[in-house]
Amino acid sequence: MDLEENEPRTVTQDFFEYWSNLDIQYHRILGAVKKELDNSDTLSASLIEEILYWKYPGLPSKMNSERYAQYQEAITNIRTGELNTKEKITILEELDGIGFPVASTILHFLEPENFPIVDERTVKALLYLEVIPQGSLYHYRKTINGFLEYRDAILVIKNSSNISLRKIDNALFSFHKFALSS
What is the domain partition of the chain in residue ranges? Predict the structure, then answer.
Protein backbone atom coordinates (compact mmCIF):
# COMPACT_ATOMS: atom_id res chain seq x y z
CA MET A 1 0.00 0.00 0.00
CA ASP A 2 1.40 3.40 -0.96
CA LEU A 3 1.18 6.37 1.35
CA GLU A 4 -1.03 9.20 0.24
CA GLU A 5 0.68 12.57 -0.09
CA ASN A 6 -1.03 13.93 3.04
CA GLU A 7 -0.20 10.92 5.25
CA PRO A 8 2.68 11.79 7.63
CA ARG A 9 5.67 9.49 7.42
CA THR A 10 8.10 11.10 9.85
CA VAL A 11 7.98 11.07 13.64
CA THR A 12 6.38 14.46 14.37
CA GLN A 13 3.38 15.77 16.30
CA ASP A 14 1.35 15.54 13.06
CA PHE A 15 2.30 11.87 12.72
CA PHE A 16 0.79 11.00 16.09
CA GLU A 17 -2.31 13.13 15.61
CA TYR A 18 -2.96 11.58 12.20
CA TRP A 19 -2.26 7.92 12.97
CA SER A 20 -3.69 7.56 16.48
CA ASN A 21 -7.33 6.76 17.12
CA LEU A 22 -9.79 6.38 19.96
CA ASP A 23 -9.83 2.98 21.61
CA ILE A 24 -12.92 2.78 23.84
CA GLN A 25 -12.20 -0.73 25.15
CA TYR A 26 -8.66 0.31 26.11
CA HIS A 27 -9.91 3.29 28.12
CA ARG A 28 -12.55 1.18 29.87
CA ILE A 29 -9.94 -1.42 30.90
CA LEU A 30 -7.53 1.32 32.00
CA GLY A 31 -10.25 2.79 34.23
CA ALA A 32 -11.08 -0.62 35.69
CA VAL A 33 -7.38 -1.27 36.44
CA LYS A 34 -7.05 2.07 38.21
CA LYS A 35 -10.18 1.38 40.26
CA GLU A 36 -8.98 -2.08 41.33
CA LEU A 37 -5.46 -0.86 42.12
CA ASP A 38 -6.89 1.91 44.30
CA ASN A 39 -8.19 -0.86 46.58
CA SER A 40 -5.69 -3.69 46.09
CA ASP A 41 -2.10 -4.48 45.11
CA THR A 42 -3.23 -6.85 42.38
CA LEU A 43 -5.95 -7.30 39.78
CA SER A 44 -8.90 -9.66 39.76
CA ALA A 45 -8.67 -12.75 37.57
CA SER A 46 -11.53 -11.42 35.44
CA LEU A 47 -9.69 -8.14 34.76
CA ILE A 48 -6.45 -9.98 33.97
CA GLU A 49 -8.44 -12.12 31.54
CA GLU A 50 -9.91 -9.00 29.95
CA ILE A 51 -6.43 -7.51 29.47
CA LEU A 52 -5.15 -10.74 27.96
CA TYR A 53 -8.16 -10.98 25.66
CA TRP A 54 -7.68 -7.35 24.59
CA LYS A 55 -4.09 -8.18 23.53
CA TYR A 56 -4.64 -11.70 22.17
CA PRO A 57 -8.24 -12.88 21.84
CA GLY A 58 -7.29 -16.59 21.89
CA LEU A 59 -5.07 -16.51 24.96
CA PRO A 60 -7.54 -16.57 27.89
CA SER A 61 -9.13 -19.81 26.72
CA LYS A 62 -5.85 -21.49 27.64
CA MET A 63 -5.91 -20.15 31.19
CA ASN A 64 -6.89 -21.76 34.47
CA SER A 65 -7.37 -20.50 38.03
CA GLU A 66 -3.87 -21.61 39.10
CA ARG A 67 -2.31 -19.56 36.31
CA TYR A 68 -4.38 -16.50 37.23
CA ALA A 69 -3.20 -16.86 40.83
CA GLN A 70 0.41 -16.84 39.57
CA TYR A 71 -0.31 -13.70 37.53
CA GLN A 72 -1.93 -12.03 40.54
CA GLU A 73 1.07 -12.86 42.72
CA ALA A 74 3.43 -11.44 40.07
CA ILE A 75 1.38 -8.24 39.84
CA THR A 76 1.45 -7.91 43.63
CA ASN A 77 5.25 -8.33 43.60
CA ILE A 78 5.57 -5.67 40.89
CA ARG A 79 3.29 -3.25 42.74
CA THR A 80 4.80 -3.71 46.21
CA GLY A 81 8.48 -4.29 45.40
CA GLU A 82 11.13 -1.77 44.53
CA LEU A 83 11.90 -3.28 41.15
CA ASN A 84 13.54 -1.81 38.09
CA THR A 85 12.11 -2.08 34.58
CA LYS A 86 14.07 -5.20 33.70
CA GLU A 87 12.94 -6.98 36.89
CA LYS A 88 9.29 -6.05 36.32
CA ILE A 89 9.17 -7.31 32.74
CA THR A 90 11.13 -10.44 33.67
CA ILE A 91 8.75 -11.38 36.52
CA LEU A 92 5.86 -11.48 34.05
CA GLU A 93 7.70 -12.81 31.01
CA GLU A 94 8.92 -15.84 32.93
CA LEU A 95 5.35 -16.91 33.77
CA ASP A 96 3.86 -19.73 31.74
CA GLY A 97 1.88 -18.34 28.81
CA ILE A 98 3.41 -14.84 28.93
CA GLY A 99 5.93 -13.43 26.46
CA PHE A 100 7.20 -9.88 26.14
CA PRO A 101 4.17 -8.60 24.16
CA VAL A 102 1.71 -9.78 26.84
CA ALA A 103 4.02 -8.81 29.72
CA SER A 104 4.40 -5.31 28.26
CA THR A 105 0.61 -5.07 27.92
CA ILE A 106 0.03 -5.97 31.58
CA LEU A 107 2.76 -3.53 32.66
CA HIS A 108 1.29 -0.83 30.44
CA PHE A 109 -2.08 -1.12 32.18
CA LEU A 110 -0.32 -1.03 35.57
CA GLU A 111 1.93 1.91 34.61
CA PRO A 112 0.51 3.49 31.42
CA GLU A 113 3.12 6.23 31.16
CA ASN A 114 6.15 4.00 31.81
CA PHE A 115 5.56 0.90 29.69
CA PRO A 116 4.76 0.88 25.98
CA ILE A 117 3.07 -2.18 24.54
CA VAL A 118 5.41 -4.08 22.26
CA ASP A 119 3.65 -5.34 19.16
CA GLU A 120 4.74 -6.68 15.78
CA ARG A 121 3.11 -3.77 13.96
CA THR A 122 4.64 -1.09 16.18
CA VAL A 123 8.10 -2.64 15.90
CA LYS A 124 7.81 -2.81 12.10
CA ALA A 125 6.64 0.82 11.98
CA LEU A 126 9.60 1.95 14.10
CA LEU A 127 11.97 -0.03 11.89
CA TYR A 128 10.44 1.54 8.76
CA LEU A 129 10.67 5.03 10.28
CA GLU A 130 14.28 4.28 11.31
CA VAL A 131 13.59 5.12 14.94
CA ILE A 132 15.14 1.89 16.20
CA PRO A 133 18.24 0.21 14.75
CA GLN A 134 17.57 -2.31 12.02
CA GLY A 135 17.33 -5.69 13.61
CA SER A 136 15.16 -8.72 13.63
CA LEU A 137 11.56 -8.57 14.73
CA TYR A 138 12.44 -11.45 17.05
CA HIS A 139 15.03 -9.29 18.86
CA TYR A 140 12.56 -6.54 19.74
CA ARG A 141 9.62 -8.81 20.61
CA LYS A 142 11.32 -11.82 22.20
CA THR A 143 14.44 -10.68 24.08
CA ILE A 144 14.84 -8.59 27.20
CA ASN A 145 17.48 -6.37 25.59
CA GLY A 146 15.30 -5.88 22.53
CA PHE A 147 12.31 -4.95 24.67
CA LEU A 148 14.41 -2.47 26.67
CA GLU A 149 15.73 -0.88 23.44
CA TYR A 150 12.17 -0.66 22.10
CA ARG A 151 10.94 0.90 25.37
CA ASP A 152 13.80 3.41 25.42
CA ALA A 153 13.02 4.49 21.83
CA ILE A 154 9.33 4.96 22.62
CA LEU A 155 10.14 6.92 25.80
CA VAL A 156 12.45 9.23 23.82
CA ILE A 157 9.52 10.01 21.50
CA LYS A 158 7.20 10.51 24.49
CA ASN A 159 9.61 12.78 26.35
CA SER A 160 10.55 14.86 23.32
CA SER A 161 6.98 15.33 22.10
CA ASN A 162 4.85 15.19 25.28
CA ILE A 163 2.59 12.61 23.62
CA SER A 164 1.15 9.76 25.69
CA LEU A 165 2.48 6.25 25.23
CA ARG A 166 -1.00 5.12 24.18
CA LYS A 167 -1.22 7.72 21.44
CA ILE A 168 2.25 6.75 20.22
CA ASP A 169 1.31 3.06 20.28
CA ASN A 170 -1.97 3.67 18.44
CA ALA A 171 -0.32 5.85 15.81
CA LEU A 172 2.45 3.34 15.10
CA PHE A 173 -0.01 0.43 15.00
CA SER A 174 -2.37 2.26 12.64
CA PHE A 175 0.48 3.54 10.46
CA HIS A 176 1.68 -0.02 9.94
CA LYS A 177 -1.78 -1.49 9.45
CA PHE A 178 -3.06 1.11 7.01
CA ALA A 179 0.04 2.55 5.34
CA LEU A 180 2.64 -0.23 5.33
CA SER A 181 0.60 -3.44 5.03
CA SER A 182 -0.35 -4.55 1.59
Answer: 13-21+115-180, 24-110
